[in-house]
Design the sequence.
């Protein structure tokens, strides 16, 4: 499910059309697999017999369908309409069947069991619901949650139950089975924290995004700016430091890539190279103050941008003819 998304977004960043067309058959096979795996159902189920229907799997499948459809249309290939129709059906079903109402405002289910029962655990897997994927004109694809549900998820992710002060816990501190060193049971996984920051910022929840951002950057300093893939999800206190995880890889490719995502999120860079535009929507709160990014490439040329302390972005270097979007 990741490859069609990667190809679609690489094209937005300036991958040559010839290269995109060469890789398109691989993306088409991925999308064919997705539709075949779903069959007549709305959901993409785990392949093992009796496996659950996971929240993050639906989010990733939905993103692949929408960005894959966009890619197929752009390169003159059939299949986009069917993918969009399935994505719409998935959104309708998900908003009804994956949302658990409760006195606190509700939450997305982590999964549904084969017999349809929701699994109510609150964990970092929910951030994938905010990672909807970049379409044209600097706009993100629609997500599986509606606006009210998105606002509630943002509130939950920004609460002390999920925000450890060092980043996002894999499982909420009040959930049964929470363990600050559990691989998915409470440890902070850097790449999921970065996805959370990016998704929250894109949805307009800068306060929650900024808190997670400052937490993971403080952890980076404690680890000599060489973040492991995960570390302990103990609550941050004055004078404390994040606790290393004995099984974590360091260095880790996912943690390194998370840094790039965090920086591009701060500057709000949303390119659309085929249209010859780039949109800048930086965090207006400017949580790190003035920021300058150089060494990026859009449309095959150097791209540099500066964000002021007031959260205003200014392009300092760009490809000839690249226009600033609205």
Sequence:
């Amino acid at each position: 499910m990741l490859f069609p998304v990667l190809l679609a977004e690489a094209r937005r960043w300036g991958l040559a059309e010839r290269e995109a067309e060469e890789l398109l058959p691989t993306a088409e096979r991925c999308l064919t697999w997705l539709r075949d795996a779903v069959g007549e159902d709305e959901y993409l189920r785990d392949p093992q017999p009796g496996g659950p229907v996971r929240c993050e799997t639906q989010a990733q499948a939905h993103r692949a369908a929408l960005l894959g459809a966009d890619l197929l249309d752009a390169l003159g290939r059939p299949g986009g309409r069917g993918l969009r129709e399935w994505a719409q059906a998935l959104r309708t079903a998900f908003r009804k069947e994956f949302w658990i109402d409760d006195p606190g405002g509700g939450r997305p289910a982590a999964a549904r069991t084969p017999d349809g029962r929701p699994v109510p655990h609150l964990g970092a897997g929910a951030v994938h619901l905010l990672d909807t994927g970049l379409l044209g004109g600097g706009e993100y694809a629609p997500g599986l949650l509606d606006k009210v549900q998105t606002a509630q998820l943002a509130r939950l992710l920004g609460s002390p139950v999920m925000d450890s002060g060092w980043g996002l816990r894999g499982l909420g501190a009040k959930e049964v089975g929470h363990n600050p060193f559990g691989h998915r049971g409470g440890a902070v996984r850097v790449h999921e924290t970065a996805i959370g920051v990016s998704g929250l910022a894109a949805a307009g929840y800068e306060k929650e995004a900024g808190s997670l951002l400052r937490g993971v950057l403080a952890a980076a300093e404690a680890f000599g700016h060489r973040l492991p893939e995960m570390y302990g999800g103990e609550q941050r206190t004055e004078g404390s430091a994040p606790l290393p995880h004995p099984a974590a890889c360091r260095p880790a490719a996912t943690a390194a890539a998370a840094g790039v995502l965090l920086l591009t999120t701060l500057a709000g860079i949303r390119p659309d190279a085929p249209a010859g535009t780039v949109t800048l929507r930086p965090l207006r709160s400017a949580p790190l103050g003035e920021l300058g990014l150089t060494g990026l490439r859009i449309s095959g040329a150097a791209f540099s941008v500066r964000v002021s302390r007031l959260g205003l972005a200014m392009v300092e270097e760009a490809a000839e003819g690249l226009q600033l979007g609205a």
The longest helix spans residues 17-38.
